[in-house]
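Archive entry: two folds, one per protein. Generate the first.
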Amino acid sequence: MLATATLAAGFSSLSAQAADADSGDAPATDLDKVQVRGSWFAPSSPKFTAELLDTPKSVSVVTEKTIQEIGATNLVDALRMVPGITFGAGEGGNSTGDRPFLRGFDGQSNMFVDGLRDVGTQTREVFDLEQLEVVKGPSSAYGGRDSGGGSINLVSKTPKLKNETNVSMGVGTDSYARGTVDANYVLGDGIAARLNLLRHAADIPGRDAANVSRWGIAPSVAFGLNGPLQVIASHYHLETDDLPDAGGFPYADPATGTPSGRPLVPDRNNYYGLKDRDFQRTRADISTIDASYDLGGHKLRNIARLGNTSNDYLWTQPDDSKNNPNKYGTLWRRTNDRAIDTRTFADQLSLTGAFQTGGLKHSYSAGVEYSEEKSSKGGYDIGGGGTNNPISNNQVCKTTGAATGYNCTDFYNPNPNDPWSATHPVTRTNKALDVEQTTKTKSVYAFDTIELSEKWLVNLGLRWDDYDTEQVTPVLNKAPTVLRNSDGFLNYQAGVVFKPTANGSIYLSYGTSSTPPGMDSGEGNDSISAAIQNLKPQETRNYELGTKWDLFDKRLNLTAAIFHTEMSNARVVIDTGSTQNAGKKAISGVEIGVNGQITDRWNVAGGYTYMDSELKDNGFVCSISSRTGCPAPGVWIVSPNNGNMFPNTPRHAATL
């Protein structure tokens, strides 16, 4: 949808701005939430104790202006401007929301909103975003558990002391229609309110039948914007109702090729799903209270959040496991379904400021955090259809149509309007049998940037997490299966910064991260099994040498970095068939980035990434294929993937 959305924004949009020149007695000072600290753009998190130029880590900031100018309509669109990020989809076609990979590591569980972890599975919107902040490399010192590649923080829009209304509307090809409203009003002395609205609908370009539809509202109110005590209350609501698209036919498997060995290539527009059955509906409700008090050189802040997200879907995955396309010119309509509800509570108390000791200036940030994440994972009962062919009682499709319950369709000419036939309508499975997972985390952290001289700085960070997760799987007429993992882990980072000039820096840094069992990816994919519940967290470390430069009156930021990231105790299967922390993988690379304004009319954002990844020890695999597991210990062999690149690490990647 990116190309369509960009055309709509660039050629078919209407925008209106209304600013009240006489805003009553409201002061002229704009106290927006994101404070620019010596640069045209800056991270909002108080855990950054120096401006971006002097932070010894790769950090990319995507501003609201950039988001608007590229015509981004969702998070994936906005992140395409950030080097070092690739995107994945759910395993087997399961839709689990946004799934970015940062330097080859799954970043779905490392999503934050205003500095608090957001684990709910959803396709995130941009209508309420002030900016995006991407931290690359292991960053558990900043946010706790981490997959090793970095984290993404979404900064929400907040009220400001300025009357302003922005309305945008866009239309385009493939039934694209989008409208947003961003209205800010001054209500009194230091009091302001802001309202963001969204309506979006479109077909999927180049695909039959598939479409998306969503709407959102995000109100917020702020008190004390011109005083030491500030309180901001906000709520974010987003609903989606899509006809999902699992994509076209995966014709890479030689088994599905023609007798001559050439792959079968159907029309790209083919949609193998069913309008009468398939759906994906998501909902997000997130309420936040952010309070801060200026102590004069120090600031005390507390941010608390309650969140509730859901992701329900049933959709078709084209299945060629029985070689139906080659044998009969047909395809099996396999169904994937899930119902996920996630509830979160998080609270973060922090103190930031600066002081001097022995002639050295310290800029510090310290705090404590508590979070509780609860998820329920169920599915949908499709009434016997979508599981078996009434004719063959399996996935073999010798024919199509009503006789097969419309589980089989023509490979070259599928009909998404086929009527769905089943013994009963699609219904939610018994919620009493949902898998329940609860994760509780208590954390304490501290950061300090020490100015040794005008040209030398040292950055230090430390974080301790006390982590506990429990998974309860109900069993009909039996006691539930309970799995649990508890641990504590310490992570840290250290960096040295040399400033040859005021607008440039050269840095060397080291950082670590920890990934507890079952926390590799986002909610909906995360789970514990008996094989891994007693294992230690995976540990990742990163070495980085880089440089940053602010040009054109600090409006343009240039960055370059060489990095090496290594996971030394990855979870793998060993030669006895058990899972242990014995694997190893590494990635080395170079990253170049550019972000900002060259002239008043010329903005640029993008970069280039080179990645060289290797699975150094990927454990063992069974040499005999069996649906019931490996039959004997003696048939385990060293993984043939040893020495290969690991997924989602393109050797060369560029964006502009």
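Generate the second and append.
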Amino acid sequence: MFAREIHTKSGTLGVGALSGVCTHEQYRSRGFAAQTVRAAFARVDQGLYPVSLWMTTVPGFYEKLGARVIHSTWVNGKNPDNPTADPWPDEVKMIYPASYPWSEGVMDLNGGVY
């Protein structure tokens, strides 16, 4: 997890950017990814970030850990060629904790996807 600033209709929001979570097929279902993600989410729980944000193809995995799917419209204002294009390649975007008061609407990722 690393710090990232995004732009919302309420202003700039610092998020914990979760990225690169994967487990080799041979080692799945042993709890390694859950342990890693819980450690990352602990940084949010400790107040280092108000919320964590990421994209995924396995939302159910993260929902079991206390996250939820969000339905914002995404842009990247730093994309010189097409700033209104959705920068995320995966359809599902999520936040942790699920209780965070996320404001749906247009969100600016403020840089390339992670």
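Annotation attached to the second fold: The beta strands are 2-8, 11-17, 52-56, 68-70, 73-75, 92-96, 106-108. The domain at 2-108 is CATH 3.40.630.30 (Aminopeptidase).
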